[in-house]
Amino acid sequence: MQSVSGDVHPEAARLSFVLCYEVRMLDTLVFGSVVFPLLAALAVYFVRGDAARNIIVPVSVAITAAAAVGLASLGSFSYSPQAILGISLNGLITVLDFALLGFIFLIALRMSNLLIMGLTALQVLGMVYLDFFLMDHGTQVTGFYADSLSLTMVLIISIVGGLICFYGLGYMKEHEEHLHLAKSRQPRFFFFMLLFLGAMNGLVLANNLSWMYFFWEVTTLCSFMLIGHDGTDEAKTNATRALWMNMAGGVAFVAALMFLQKSTGTLSVQDILAKSAAPGMKTAALLLPMAFLCFAGFTKAAQVPFQSWLCGAMVAPTPVSALLHSSTMVKAGVYLVIRMAPAYQGTMLSAAVAIFGAFTFIAASALAVGQSNGKKVLAYSTIANLGLIIACAGINTSAAIAAAVMLIIFHAISKALLFLCVGAIEQKIGSRDIEAMRGLFKVMPRTAVITVIGIVTMMLPPFGMLLAKWMALESAATATAAMPPLVIMLALGSALTVLFWARWAGVMLGSTVPGENPPAERQPFSVRLPLLLLAGGAVGLSLLSPFVYSMLVAPATALYAKATAYTVTMGVFENNAGVFAVYPLFLLLGVGFVYALRAAKKVGPEAASLPYMGGSQRVENGKIGFNGPMNGFVETAAGNYYMESLFGESKLSKSINVIAIVLLAVMLGGVL
Amino acid sequence: MYMLSNVLRNIMGKYSTRLYPFETRPAYEGFRGKLVNNIHDCIFCKSCQIKCPSQCITVDPKEGKWDCDPFACVYCSVCVDACPTHCLSMENQHRKPAPSKFVVSLQGTPRKSKKADKSAEKPAEAAAPEA
Amino acid sequence: MLTFIAALIGLALTPVVGGLLAGVDRRVTARLQSRFGPPILQPFYDVLKLLGKAPMVVNSWQVMSAYIYVLSSALAVLLFFMQGDLLLLFFVMTIGAVFQVVGALSVPSPYAQVGAQRELLQMLAYEPLIIVVFVGISMATGSFKIADVYAMEKPLLLSMPFLFIALGYALTIKLRKSPFDISACHHAHQELVRGVLTEYSGPHLALLEIGHWFDVVLILGLCSLFWHTSIVGMVALLVVTYAAEILIDNICARMTWPWMLKNVLGVGLVLSVFNLLWLYVS
Amino acid sequence: MSRTIIPFGPQHPVLPEPLHLKLVVEDETIVEAIPALGYVHRGLETLASIRDYNQMVYIVERVCGICSCIHAMCYCQGLETMMNVEVPSRAKYLRVIWSELHRIHSHLLWLGLFADGFGFESLFMQFWKIRERVMDINEATAGNRVVISVNVVGGVRRDLDKTQQRWILDELDKLEKELRQLMKTMLDDYTVKKRTVGVGVLTAEQAIQLGAVGPTLRGSGVAQDARQLGYAAFDELDFEPVTSPEGDSWARSKVRFMETLQSMDIVRQAISRLPDTELAAKVPGKPTGEVVCRVEQPRGELLYYLKGNGSKNMERVRIRTPTFANIPPLLAMLPGAQLADVPIAALTIDPCISCTER
Amino acid sequence: MPTHSEILNATPIAADAVVAQARSMFDQGYRLVTMSVVDLGDGNVDIFYHYDLNNEMTHFRLTHPKDKPVPSISPVYFAALLVENESRDHFNLQFDGLVLDFNRTLYLDEEITSTISAPFCKISTIQKKD
Amino acid sequence: MGLLENWINKGRLKSPWVVHFDCGSCNGCDIEVLACLTPVFDVERFGIINVGNPKHADVLLVTGTVNHRNKKVLKNIYDQMPDPKAVIAIGACGTSGGVFRECYNVVGGVDQVIPVDVYVPGCPAKPDAIIDGVVTALDVVKAKLGLGEMPKVTVID
Ligand code: NFV
Ligand code: SF4
Ligand code: SF4
Ligand code: SF4
Fold first, then answer.
1. Distance of alpha carbon E7 from alpha carbon D81, whole angstroms
2. How many CA atoms lie within 13 A of D275 on its CB side?
3. Choosing among B15, B25, B28, which should be mutated to test the D contact, i.e. which has the most D CBs within 10 A?
4. Minimal Cα–Cα distance from A589 to chain C, Å?
5. Alpha-carbon span A425 to D161, nearest angstrom
6. How far apart (Å, rounded) are the C-alpha atoms in residues A378 and F120?
7. DSSP assignment, residue A268?
8. pLDDT for A137
9. Hey, where are the domains in chain C?
């Protein structure tokens, strides 16, 4: 039922010697990662009732996570299940493919959305052409293949994603209480959430591009369903937008499949990468499908000009946003781009991808500056970071790929954390607006501090994100092509990110009298646990970043370039271009931070004073303000600058989209 | 950029600071500084009290007292102009700041007394910090 | 180890140098304005006095932020003396800048809040410039390590004069000098009182002041990299740079942040791109 | 959009005076500016009922230290009209000299504060440095630097002898030279113009409708100056109102700058024509009747309404100061301006709160 | 011939004509110099409206009972806002249609308005309490 | 510790930062206070800068009479100055209410609201007098720190 083929990679070759039981183990683990979530999803869907769900979800995410850890501990492998219950998997997936496309077509038909219908039809046609005319069904294509990159992805998907699902339990309960639903729609919700995890795992493990395509479309469907979950008009429109944009990506994917099949004769990722390594292979025939794949990746990763679907996805309940942003969906996009990176390494396409990613980085960062909606800030920041990842993929050196993978890991954790925080905040204060979070510390001290921790891990050293950003910038500086514009975009973009993060962190900590602590807050366990775990993870994993690097990231980059990106000695990253001393920094900053906290604690209430108000400060009903005209009390207010005239969505989006389209056109055109 | 020549000229030349109180510039002749009363010549006619816009002089002809609150005085010299005997005058130095307030209270010889120049020759001084 | 000890000594000397620089700055500024000016040691008197004042704060976050600001500025200086990585140094410096903003934002004082917003915009203006300058250096030397700069034979200024000007912009902003004393300035004669510093007082203000000295020395240190080949040249470059800063401070009005963004990012980035292209081609 | 509410004052480093505004800004654009007054209100007009009309001269001088001499002059001129006193012409010329010196010091003071308002510290220092020359003249000739108390009803209290006149001319020459060195900086410097041009625009029509006076009015191109009315010796001196048509902050600063030079010229004219007469006329009787009197202050037209009832106390002294008239135009300038422009716009009317509130 | 200083010669005006008059002055391009209020001591006040056109002044006198509201000209001349509020403070007058009524807090605080009904009404009232 | 304390005390005497509040002054004293900062008098010689913010200041310069509205502001500003601090009342108005002390809206001198350390007479007080005032205030501070004697009051010299 399974075979282990050792013809692809020496790593994998080693695996052919493994014992039979290990193979079975592998079998179980892949099953646990990919198919089990689907079964669990079916279980939650059919076994209704809160109690059952409260058991099924934690248990199944725990199993999935365990499977992921198991897979990761096994190391790279390649693996081809041939058939399930006697049905050939290839055939099964082909059938499912058409079924899925048909289902989407039906949805489009119901909404009488011509665009989606058209896009779906195109894909169907393409698949028909591919499956029945192009494909040589005799060739064996390894179904699954895993290296450090995919295993890292699996870990993120299963663990972070699992935590989000768990958080969803508490969250959705309250969410539905808010909505006063007659009948709980949670079974449907968790069905898609769990399905999503499985599909993502399948996607990142797939070696056969046509399998990957299948999983790809499953995530599209899941996201559509989840975005539209609340069923409001806005939810529906936004879900539809997400659908058509992703379907457009799907068309590109199908196109890439056709071209690849035609030019290389295989859809095996490993084969294609191996072939491309040969000199003289990086011709238009190979690069065109690569460009299409990148395009597909861009749509999924919500790169400009497709950013709007991801922002629109904000209407969905928070766990969905968290899932889409941190561990699934968008990460699929960048995964694909990185996965294929060796195939276009050193070409103009690579430079174009880098520029495009950098542009997304700066554009999305600028858009984030103009937002006061916390979730939107998070959304744009996600897009920006994905842009950065893509830029790294485009830079395409081992250091850059290392940066990209590090970004994927740390972004997933911090971003999931931030989304969950915003969700928790929103349920408490009824708003996701940053302005409404002013002085949140007084209301939700723990969540506020955790959110600030999340933000700080996003933007400051010595945390993983910054380590990754450092890698990115240094590799950009050594990039061979298009360096000056690339660097300037990255520099501007990172300054913009500091801007919007710092002000958010600042407003949360609002005033309390020194030495006085606000009352402790209460929170459901299923909300608090993921928050604590993720916050701990964001900090702890940063502390472990040298290990993360050498265990997960370095092997992943080894596939891309011979040279190792960084040597790590005693927690100090170093290569020719620079040094980043993680441990010393952690040590000094940590000690300093503790000292600063103690100093802050020491200042007691006797040192308290009101803010300076030109001498007319006044307190009324616990509100701080000043004595204004007519001796009236005026409460002071302060607002961040969102500079709508500069950074407003409506102002910027248009020009950003135009530039992005031009860049895309150049990218596609440049290949030919 | 036009300022450049100005600041450069400043730094080349000497600073224009008067190093008060280390160096003092000779006072201008007519400066209206500290108000002094040569109490010998005072006839307690009350002209100063009546004309003073700040109403800070109190003259008590019976007791022969002339009081002035130097912290309410606005140094306008109206009293000086009004004084028939020219016993009031102003120094050309400002009155020095003090850590507490007081009233300058001068004891002269009441007008009606014939032995005017005998008893109170020297001005009595009394520091009466205000309540 | 030796570098580490040397770096520690350097770190200890930095506030002394920073304070003296500030003192000289104030004296020279006074003379430029035809005033006698304060004693050269004045900044030390100020800081000592502030340290002796009773603490007065609006909330505890302020205090924490002040400490972190000083800490990270000092750390950045330490990294500089240890000839570490330029980008890393920059990121560490950012911690301080960010916490300055966080401290100001945590207070419900409109002046501090607006000051914080402006400080952020200033960061937006100078951060890209500094990064680009570092990239320029890395192009010239092949790495971001300061040690590699010292290994160069020719002074950097010769190959990156425009980037030096760009760094000059950043320096002016960091020094809070006209025309860029937008978020806070040395004397409170502006609409924001003292912007981000408004709500700090006593010892905590002293901390920020010391942190500022670290920042100034650090940026001047970065400038010094442009003429590393001889001590004389380095000193001359620094003197000229600092003198130019003081002069500019005295011959310009304070500008507004929209002007700053337009100008610093516009002119600065054009200069940098030009210089980068030049480096890139050669 | 997020709003920030800022108390501008009463204690504020930009303005030494307690002007208090409640500013509501969005990003940094002012959407609402509401003034609060009363921090300097003393109610000195009521002192008229317990001080006699001669003592009131010294009290109205203290309406404001910057324009004090001219307050006293206006009050005295009003009383002189009411009591039908002919002022000796030397006194008239001396009044011109001292009042113009006051204008010079007031304008220099303002130019400095204005420079400080846009953060040009060294320029501020320069203006105040050269202003000290005028202060020295005041101190040497009138006996005090600021509140000079030279006016009395019927004339003046002090004289200028020949050496003093020559010294004043000398000092003015030096002052003018130094002032001209700053002209380009104030009016042409790139950074200064960036901050002043187009800030706080007031058209001529608006200015009149809102009741603007003085440089605020003339900066909008309206040539109105109360000195044209020919009080004191102004009817015998040559001058033209200084105007500038732009109506923005730059125009107002230009008007004030030029007026400073013009005032020096007027002082020179006055000194050269100083007639030889008495210093003060005798004032018979007690004031009775109603008089309205106007003079040009540094900040614009000042109006006194005086009512005497035949006793030594005035029935009513009503003072309408120029800043009082200029505040409504200021309120019209602020909305839409940038926060950073608030000090600039506020300063361009040369606000004097102690005058406004008395 | 405009003069700087004149014995006041004011045209009497009725309360109901004040606003119309102001409007017509406004239309003719007059500048509102100010208003002056004098307490006549018999329960009436004199309110003067001083207008100016090219340095030539025109005055109107409204004699009005203190306790009756005065029509406000601030809707016509925004500049009247401050004077009218000031008169409210000092004479406790009421104005009808004042665009922004500080309600006697323009200059004065509780401490004064509660102890002195109108500081400018009677000479004796200004005598300080303490 | 002793050394540091000495240094701090030295700093206290050499760096009196001032905040100026115009408390209903006629501007006469105000502009003289400002004039002190400018080249001809330049009090920065003594380390004085006008910080414009009570939280940074050591010395409060008050000019003008206290009235019913600004007395609260005065108190507020005084309260926002961290210890140790000193107050200097400037001019006839600041010390006693000056010519205005009988006006209905006038409370009187600054000492009606907050404790005053030094009174500077004059109307307006000359910059020289203000400098003398600051010097006297420093003596007062010194005396309060136990480092010297309280400056003497000379009524007639
Ligand atoms: N406003 C006003 Fe004055 C003037 N000029 C006058 O009446 O300054 Ni204080
Ligand atoms: S100088 Fe003036 S205020 Fe002083 S006592 Fe004489 S008259 Fe009164
Ligand atoms: S006016 Fe002269 S003589 Fe008369 S009481 Fe006063 S001081 Fe004495
Ligand atoms: S003391 Fe004199 S100069 Fe000073 S504020 Fe009072 S009245 Fe004005």
1. 7
2. 14
3. B28
4. 8
5. 81
6. 60
7. B
8. 65
9. 2-281
